[in-house]
Design goal:
single chain, alpha/beta, TIM Barrel, eight-stranded parallel β-sheet, about 45% helix
């Protein structure tokens, strides 16, 4: 089956495309590419000027952080032409100033369509704490996320990924995060979008805590995006990654296959992918698993390929 560029744009905007239309999938899951895998490629030295300087640049001149050899508008073409991957997960910091820029979003959508690539979600960072203790600050964070709901809908995504950042006592943070996420999920329903929370530092990397947030909020379009690697709660506290993914999978509507380094046999050196993907399989998940290479031992392109090969090999050895 083939589609014209215009048909793909229109169908994607309407949410009509499925993995079957694009065709790239394993026996029981499909592979997507998270844009963060290419952060050195797109940011270049702009990301290594220090977190404070980077954050300031995002607020004042967001495109100035793009100092890499390639531009984020090339993301879909890179996914297709370099890796034959047909689905992508955007990160808002690569187009931080363009959430309401229709011309830019149209170009992003057109390039995805030109390459037969589906836009799955946008990962949202640096727009406020949804679990802020102060109610005005929490509401402001919800409002700051809303333009990204419009952007995700425009691109034909099914979700945005957000953070459950908060302050204060552990139990209180859980209530505050549930409150902010519930409010955002209500807005997201107006766009037929899901809101997904990643284990991404702080108490969100405590899977039992995050699962409790899901149960407290109890919103039909609120779920999780379990990441294989993000289980560091603080500098001196971590959570068992396999237990964590097991606890988050009942709420999962996307999965992030984090990778850092590989041995001579092509196995990830810190994460047992066979064990992890068996957890994903046993949870009944049959959607996209997004490659998120975050290592430095390989180039980003080689790290993505190594992760892709590992996922394909492990997936082929697991039977639904």
């Amino acid at each position: 089956m083939s589609f014209t560029r215009r048909q793909i744009i229109l169908a994607t905007a309407a949410g009509c495309f499925t993995r079957r239309a694009f065709g790239s999938q394993s026996a029981w899951f499909s592979i997507s590419l998270a844009e963060w895998s290419l952060h050195r490629t797109f940011f270049g030295k702009g990301f290594y000027s220090g977190f404070g300087a980077f954050g300031q640049a995002l607020r004042t001149d967001p495109d100035s952080v793009l100092q890499g050899g390639r531009h984020p508008l090339e993301f879909a073409a890179i996914a297709r032409n370099q890796f034959d991957i047909d689905a992508v997960e955007y990160v808002n910091t690569f187009f931080y100033g363009h959430a309401e820029d229709t011309k830019y979003l149209n170009e992003l959508a057109a390039r995805a369509a030109d390459n037969g690539v589906q836009s799955l979600l946008i990962m949202i960072d640096a727009v406020g704490a949804l679990g802020a203790a102060d109610s005005d600050e929490r509401n402001a964070a919800v409002e700051a996320h809303r333009p990204w709901l419009h952007a995700a809908e425009h691109l034909g995504c099914h979700a945005i990924r957000v953070n459950a950042a908060s302050t204060g006592a552990k139990a209180e943070q859980q209530k505050l995060a549930a409150d902010g996420l519930s409010a955002l999920a209500e807005h997201a329903r107006e766009h037929s979008l899901d809101v997904l929370v990643e284990n991404h530092g702080g108490w969100s990397s405590d899977a039992a805590w995050l699962a409790g947030v899901m149960r407290t909020a109890n919103q039909p379009n609120l779920g999780t995006l379990p990441d294989f690697g993000n289980f560091r709660i603080s500098a001196d506290s971590t959570y068992d990654r396999y237990q964590g993914v097991t606890q988050l999978m009942p709420f999962a509507r996307a999965v992030s296959a984090k990778s850092y380094d590989f041995d001579a046999s092509g196995n990830e050196t810190t994460i047992d992918y066979a064990k992890m993907m068996k957890i994903v399989l046993d949870a009944g998940y049959r959607g996209y698993v997004g490659i998120e290479y975050e290592g430095s031992g390989l180039s980003e392109f080689d790290g993505i390929r190594a992760t892709q090969r590992l996922l394909e090999r492990v997936g082929a050895n697991l039977t639904p």
